[in-house]
Design goal:
Number of helices: 8
Strand content: under 5%
Radius of gyration: 34 Å
Order of helices and strands: HHHHHHHH
Shape: elongated
Largest sheet: none
Length: 173
């Protein structure tokens, strides 16, 4: 058995578009009635106005275009509005995520300042541009009178690169 040129597999619409291909056909089937209805309304209107055959055909095309576009716009607007309304019902306050430091606070309260500082170091490595963990680590170190140099180092990272004199002048005494 040999395969000839006519036996080749030709990719279908669904092969090209995957699962969205079915959605495209569904949209087309939903727009079929408004397009045909708009075409009939346009054809009827232009025929009653006394246009020529070319004008009536053009009116039918314009009616079909306006009927399909209007229906699509209406359905899309309604679905987006309903989706937004449902989203606000489910999650009313969409405030940005703010990191909590309760684990580190609990370590400090238990007296494990070293563990809290190690945890702050991990957080600083994950988010190097966030000044909050550096400030909290510096306060933790300074507040317990442990590692004064480490507290100073954390504060200097928050402040950014400076010359040595200004860093010494602003260091806590």
């Amino acid at each position: 058995m040999s395969a000839g040129t006519g036996d080749e597999y030709r990719p279908t619409y669904f092969d090209k578009h995957g699962p969205e291909g079915a959605a495209h056909w569904k949209i087309a089937s939903y727009l079929l009635v408004p397009i045909v209805g708009g075409g009939l309304v346009g054809t009827t209107y232009f025929a009653h106005q006394g246009f020529s055959n070319a004008g009536v055909i053009a009116g039918g095309l314009v009616g079909a275009l306006l009927g399909g576009a209007g229906s699509a716009l209406f359905v899309i607007s309604m679905s987006e509005g309903m989706g937004t309304m449902f989203g606000e019902f489910i999650q009313p306050n969409r405030s940005p995520y703010e990191r909590q430091y309760s684990y580190e606070d609990s370590l400090v309260m238990r007296g494990d300042v070293e563990g809290a500082l190690a945890s702050y170091e991990k957080i600083i490595a994950e988010a190097p541009n966030d000044p909050q963990p550096r400030i909290r680590a510096a306060r933790c170190s300074k507040g317990r009178h442990l590692r004064f140099q480490q507290a100073r180092r954390h504060l200097s990272r928050v402040a950014g690169p400076r010359d040595e004199r200004s860093a010494r002048a602003q260091a806590p005494h």
